Amino acid sequence: MSNLVITGIIDGPLTGGIPKAIEFFALADIPDLSLYGFGSANNGGGSNGEEFTFPPDAISAGDYFYVATESPGFSSFFGFAPNYTSGAAAINGDDAIELFFNGAVVDVFGEINVDGSGQPWEYLDGWAYRVNGTGPSPTFDLADWQFSGPDALDGEVANGTAVTPFPLGEFRATLGNDAVLNETFDDGTQFTISTPFFSDAGVSSGFDFLGLADGSGGDFGGDPLPVGLKAYTGFDGSFLTGQDLDGEGASLPITLTWAGLDITGLSNLSFSGDFAEFFDDPGDIDSGDFIRLSYQIDGGGFQELLWFSGADFTSTGGPFNGLFREDTDFDGVGDGAALGNAAQTFGAAIAGTGASLDLQLSISLDAGDEDFAVDNFVIAALHRAPPWRLPLTMACSPRAMAAPLTLPSPSPVLATSLAPQRLTLPLPAARPMASTLAAPSPLAPLILPPVKPLRPLRCLSLGTPIVKPMRPLRSPSRIPPLGPPSPRPPQRAPSKTTIM
Question: What is the CATH number of domain 179-381?
Fold first, then answer.
């Protein structure tokens, strides 16, 4: 079995169709990457064989790395440089990719003998991303992949601000023995809920509801199937959905609780789940609407985990008629990636250890056409402490940032058990798989440059600087050094011209 898997492909929106790139993920330690290579099958013309052979680098289980046709456009769009560049990555949204191990195909995306234009797997000016827990496989299975849809990235200039961003580092391998929760919403047996499932289809319009839908039926507490179900995409099987949740007198927010999850002996916990909100022009979400996940360990009090709040309001009469965005600083205003019609995977770190964990989902939607859908809630323990998506965030006073900030040693850059207020620190562009970031010694403290706060902050003491991780990459085991990137290792010449 291959220890390497194709996890993502992007055909970018910048001039010239860049970045064109492929994301790979290591399922286990690979001491010699040169045993692997890949090739692109263009325009349905069949296999071109192994066009790029990786250099003899050693990578660790959990590493992500990226191959692009060039570096400047990739770096501009993603904020870090690719690990390798090669013309073999010159894909155009309708091309297949083959991964080779010792010369044999071990994983594939797309149909190598079919031009992808107009096919369900087309990703022109968009992306394709592997579904968690699937692959590798030498046979392409459409169900193993999720898609942005053609032209989803049109007009975007950076992944971080895209409406439908490429899900960098979001793939999770099989859950293994460290799974704490695997909620697929096939039924309601794993959680308790503050309001029973319902639909008003039998007594009213059928547009107020809460329950489990599966595309053809569902569970709405014995009530008829609502007529107002939204046409979400990307959900597999049954999922939890609702609309205008207080329309039949329910008290908001509605809460679902998974109580007493056993985390004894586990650390480095992380959450992931799929989320969507159907966009009806000009938007339905108001400032008081939210989707919020929180957790507590050993009854110590609930902490914020992952929030979605209203944003992009179009009404001239107030903060109404918008959409949901991830609320990265938990201030009630969406400022991150937007939810849309298609299911998107989001994740967050769960700080702390203990014996028992409670997870709570709270939803507040109080008007017509305000809807949500969620699925595939997973809590799992990573095998080692993960690094986190740049930029890091730090609790500090805006005034204190007028001068360079020195972090004590050992550095808390990988801390996972603290909860500060947030200030984004722009760090140098770097590659996700570069030299390991070691904790600085007492004689070599880590220095971060002065920055300007993005918004007013409720500050914490600077007695000990505190760093809070962003959403986990799930997860390359290495973070690039803060400084000039390390030189790339020499590459073997592929059959196509390598772009350096």
Answer: 2.60.120.200
